Description:
The chain is of the alpha+beta class. The chain folds into 2 domains: about 1-25 and about 105-185, Orthogonal Bundle (Topoisomerase I, Chain A, domain 4), CATH 1.10.132.20; about 35-100, Gyrase A, domain 2, CATH 3.30.1360.40. Helix content is about 60%, strand content about 15%. It has 4 helices and 6 strands, in the order αββββαββαα. It has helices at about 1-25, 75-85, 105-145, 150-185; strands spanning about 40-45, 45-50, 55-60, 65-70, 90-95, 100. The strands form 2 sheets. A 4-stranded antiparallel sheet has the order 3-4-6-5, with helices on one face. A hairpin with a 2-residue loop joins β1 and β2.
Amino acid sequence: MLNDIYDETSSHMNKSIDALKRDFSTLRTGRVTTNIVDNIKVDYYGTPTALSQVGNVIALDATTIAINPWEKAMLNPITKAIQEANIGVNPNNDGSVIKLFFPPMTVEQRNEIVKQAKAMGEKAKVAVRNIRKDSNDKVKKIEKDKAVSEDEAKKALDQIQKITDDFVAKIEEALKVKEADILKV
């Protein structure tokens, strides 16, 4: 019974780490990646559609992303969606391909992105702590129902805290790695 709670706690906390890594992938580092445009939705005949579903998105070099729409009619909706997404660049539409030219990042921009990364890390820690609270509540409930003894419940709460500490350390490590990646020139 308690092992199920431990497994469920670890599983949920792993999902929080995965979500943090997905969030981190949308942040710009020294090298441009196509992940920057992952969250942009284009109006595709009345349906909000991911940019990658309406055209080919590739990074040409360290500072340029090219979007080659599968239908020429999509050039203007894609351009409009990129402008509305406010990702820090204006799209260049040459009539067949849209190019995004990202200027080299300034120190201020890097520091701002580090702040965003830290906020994402803090959000992940809050999620992990909420999972800990839910697990602790389950342990207290089964103790109240007399399914486990008071000593077993105390050991279970300590074990849940250890799991939580491990995941908070993983979040800190992921944040350190991302921060170093962002600040690297």
